[in-house]
């Protein structure tokens, strides 16, 4: 009897297992058929194989711009990733970037809601991170019309020259010892922006600490946040240090901004002309008038714009100069050509300051800067965009709410757009028979987009490029440069440190010898 019962139980258990397996098989088959039907309805871009839950997150690596450039060689310049449960379009060619930032610019003009970026930008109450709409238009117009207009940027000339001269004097004081050029170059745009935006250098005496704060802001803006890709795992940020770091750096920066604003309010009684007003003065005046006339500008939005100025106008600028000097040291013959041009135009007098009129004649220097933007774009990926509606790109269907990463680093090294893309060659921009000779970095040539393009292009192109030109021209005019301690050029460590800005992992330390000493 017991054997009969056991046999029945065994048979029933086997049947139950069989039925359950069949049920799961049918469910899986229906899901596959549904997915196949969806893919037939939409011609989605090619995509690498995805893993459960994490999707393609494991394929980003420590240097995502390089990892995704390699993937694009296999899957194409328009590639769809699934980062957790978030669709992300990765664009790696000039023609695809043009469709995103020109042909369908309005469709891709918004930003995704990324938790860390939103928090640091005062809940996206700024111009860089704000979603597309009337508020963003208003915030951007404040920067373009009142702070970064051609007339305003020209008015900052004396500030640029004074800060550059100060850097030169610090280098002269090195007396042939190795100079931490990374630190000095970082203090140059910070000092300029403090004068431009705040009216005085609030960083004097603590510039290194302020630089560390900006670097942490930039690092966190580009840090991987698991909650952005897999929302139900966002709680992990309480244990991996992301949340505490974000809160700490936000409180520190907010405290500085609040003190600066209070200082400016206290000084309102001082009569100053429009030319004497700094950026915070201008924004506070707009805030005062906005309560009765036109759109309202809040204190929170003023801080958001201040953050935009410091994040957008400092690290990307000093990183470009840092990479340019790295490549010039690695290519001494290119450095010598640049120095000959600069010294023939400016002369060799000790106290001569390189002027904007001098720089206008420096074609080779400008080619070096262009090549640096191509070879080392400040941001390896442009700030992420998000599609507002369904659209086709390169013949593929891109659903609404798809995030977009434009790989500026990969585009700058695309062999379809550049001859010998892995060679640092400024003269490609000077050869009459080279297609590169017609390209610029101001948003019209999609092969070279360090500042982006379209509605979301960086409004500070002229402001930043004038600092880079003056800084590099001055360094190359006044000094000859070499590696310290007999280090060979081929042993110079140029390891990258990934973030919103792609900087050097290790400081650039060089020996400066005054040119007149030779």
UniProtKB/TrEMBL annotation:
Q: Which UniProt keywords apply?
A: Heme, Iron, Membrane, Metal-binding, Monooxygenase, Oxidoreductase, Transmembrane, Transmembrane helix
The cofactor required is: heme
Q: Specify which residues bind heme according to the UniProt entry for this protein.
A: 458
Query: Which CDD domains is this protein grouped with?
Result: CYP71-like
Annotated membrane-spanning segments are: 15-34
What InterPro entries does the annotation carry?
Cyt_P450, Cyt_P450_CS, Cyt_P450_E_grp-I, Cyt_P450_sf
Tell me which Gene3D superfamilies the record gives: Cytochrome P450
Instruction: Name the Gene Ontology molecular function terms of this record.
Output: heme binding; iron ion binding; monooxygenase activity; oxidoreductase activity, acting on paired donors, with incorporation or reduction of molecular oxygen
Q: Which PROSITE patterns match?
A: CYTOCHROME_P450
Family to which this protein belongs: Belongs to the cytochrome P450 family.
Annotated protein name in UniProt:
Cytochrome P450
């Amino acid at each position: 009897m017991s054997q009969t019962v056991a046999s029945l139980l065994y048979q029933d258990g086997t049947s139950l297992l069989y039925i359950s397996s069949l049920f799961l098989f049918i469910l899986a088959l229906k899901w596959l058929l549904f997915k196949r039907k969806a893919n037939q309805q939409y011609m989605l871009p090619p995509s690498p194989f995805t893993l459960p839950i994490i999707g393609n997150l494991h394929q980003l690596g420590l240097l995502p711009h390089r990892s995704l450039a390699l993937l694009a060689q296999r899957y194409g310049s328009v590639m769809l990733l699934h980062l957790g449960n978030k669709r992300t379009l990765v664009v790696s060619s000039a023609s695809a970037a043009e469709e995103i930032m020109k042909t369908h610019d309005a469709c891709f003009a918004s930003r995704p809601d990324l938790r860390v970026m939103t928090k640091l930008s005062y809940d996206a109450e700024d111009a860089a991170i704000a979603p597309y709409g009337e508020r963003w238009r208003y915030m951007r117009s404040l920067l373009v019309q009142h702070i970064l207009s051609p007339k305003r940027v020209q008015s900052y000339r004396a500030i640029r020259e004074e800060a550059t001269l100060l850097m030169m004097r610090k280098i002269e004081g090195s007396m042939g010892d190795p100079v931490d050029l990374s630190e000095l170059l970082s203090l140059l745009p910070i000092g300029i922006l403090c004068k431009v935006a705040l009216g005085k250098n609030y960083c004097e005496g603590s510039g290194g600490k302020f630089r560390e704060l900006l670097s942490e802001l930039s690092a966190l803006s580009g840090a991987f946040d698991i909650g952005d890709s897999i929302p139900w795992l966002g709680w992990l940020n309480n244990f991996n240090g992301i949340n505490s770091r974000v809160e700490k750096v936000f409180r520190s920066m907010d405290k500085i901004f609040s003190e600066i604003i209070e200082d400016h309010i206290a000084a309102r009684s001082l009569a100053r002309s429009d030319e004497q007003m700094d950026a915070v003065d201008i924004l506070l005046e707009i805030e005062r008038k906005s309560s009765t006339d036109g759109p309202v500008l809040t204190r929170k939005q003023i801080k958001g714009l201040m953050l935009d100025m410091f994040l957008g106008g400092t690290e990307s600028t000093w990183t470009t100069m840092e990479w340019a000097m790295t490549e010039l040291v690695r290519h001494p013959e290119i450095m010598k050509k640049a120095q000959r041009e600069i010294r023939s135009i400016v002369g060799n007098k000790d106290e001569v300051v390189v002027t904007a009129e001098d720089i206008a004649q420096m074609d080779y220097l400008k080619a070096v800067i262009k090549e640096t933007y191509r070879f080392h774009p400040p941001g390896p990926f442009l700030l992420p965009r998000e599609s507002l509606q369904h659209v086709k790109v390169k013949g593929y269907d891109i659903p609404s709410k798809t995030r977009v990463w434009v790989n500026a680093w990969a585009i700058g090294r695309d062999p379809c757009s550049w001859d010998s893309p892995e060679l640092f060659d400024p003269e490609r921009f000077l050869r009459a028979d080279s297609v590169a000779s017609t390209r610029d970095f101001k948003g019209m040539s999609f092969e070279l987009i360090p500042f982006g393009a379209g509605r979301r292009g960086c409004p500070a192109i002229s402001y930043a490029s004038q600092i880079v030109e003056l800084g590099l021209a001055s360094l190359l005019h006044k000094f000859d440069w070499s590696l310290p301690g007999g280090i060979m050029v081929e042993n110079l460590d140029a390891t990258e440190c990934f973030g919103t800005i792609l900087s050097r992992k290790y400081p650039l330390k060089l020996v400066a010898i005054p040119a007149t000493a030779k």
